[in-house]
Design a protein that fits this description.
Layout lengths: L1 E7 L8 E7 L6 H11 L3 E9 L2 E8 L2 E3 L3 H15 L7 E6 L2 E8 L2 E7 L4 E3 L3 H7 L5 E4 L3 E4 L3 H6 L4 H4 L7 E6 L5 E6 L15 H12 L3 E6 L5 E7 L3 E6 L1 E8 L3
Parallel strand pairs: 2-3, 4-6, 11-12, 13-14
Antiparallel strand pairs: 1-2, 1-17, 3-4, 4-5, 6-7, 7-8, 8-16, 9-10, 10-11, 12-13, 14-15, 15-16
Length: about 260
């Protein structure tokens, strides 16, 4: 099984979010894909099947199991398709068939633009459990697939060291902390203890919660977002209501073969 490792949402190696991309002719059994993800120890490992020149099937696994949407691993897979597998002719778009529907990725010079469904955010009460988990009381909290907690200080978000055990008891599949930025429109961190991922270095699907919130708060649709994990990453985003465009760069770290 051919596998590539790509750092997504960055132009520099060892930054952004690393994802493994496995090229398969048919789906391995689910347990094997989970074990490969566990062995890789990245936040996500993608598995993709080529249908034709510009159409692929795509699934994503964390060390804790399969998930329904992953931005950085989709970007990483698109990078591999365009730069390693290759597309014939002058095609600049590919379509991934996924559990979250058809995801379109457009190559624009060295940047990859992905159209993802926006999550509907429901405002929920701020609880003591949120304060205990994050170490500070959020000013607001919202729930989509994930929990989104809003803070009033970007430096707190950058430097926070949340309690992983307490995060795992909060609602949402992932837990995101965000604040308005100074250099960037917004700053965020993303945590996924329920998926055996303490921190997702740069979370694409998380920004399908984060960007809809900040687009409305800042009254603008084009935003540049900074994920303030130790690796860090930059996302160029456009909020379109039903969909959110996430764009970023990627760089190849390694390629090899799995002895499966």
């Amino acid at each position: 099984m051919k596998m590539y490792v790509v750092d997504a949402f960055t132009k520099e190696l060892f930054k952004g979010n690393p994802a493994a991309v496995c090229i398969v002719n048919e789906w391995p059994n689910t347990e094997l894909m989970r074990k490969i993800a566990m062995e890789n120890r990245f936040s996500e490992t993608a598995f993709t099947i080529k249908i034709d020149n510009t159409h692929y099937k795509l699934r994503w696994f964390t060390p804790g199991g399969e998930i329904d949407l992953c931005g950085h691993a989709t970007l990483a897979t698109a990078f591999v398709v365009f730069n390693k597998i290759g597309v014939k002719g002058d095609a600049h778009k590919i379509v991934f068939f996924t559990k979250s529907g058809d995801l379109i990725v457009t190559k624009n010079d060295d940047r990859y633009e992905m159209s993802f469904p926006s999550y509907n955010l429901k405002k929920i009460p701020v609880t003591n459990e949120m304060t205990d988990a994050f170490g500070k009381t959020p000013i607001e909290a919202y729930l989509g697939r994930d929990l989104l907690c809003i803070f009033d200080d970007e430096n707190f978000v950058k430097n926070m060291n949340p309690n992983q055990e307490k995060l795992a008891h909060l609602p949402g599949l992932l837990q995101h902390a965000t604040a308005k930025g100074t250099k960037f429109d917004c700053v965020s961190r993303s945590f996924a203890p329920k998926l055996s991922v303490p921190e997702d270095p740069v979370c694409g699907s998380g920004h399908c919660h984060i960007i809809p919130y900040w687009a409305k708060q800042l009254n603008k649709n084009d935003l540049v977002a900074f994920q303030a994990s130790p690796r860090s990453g930059i996302l160029y985003c456009t909020y379109l209501g039903k969909d959110t465009i996430l764009a970023g760069n990627a760089v190849l770290y390694s390629e090899g073969k799995l002895n499966i």
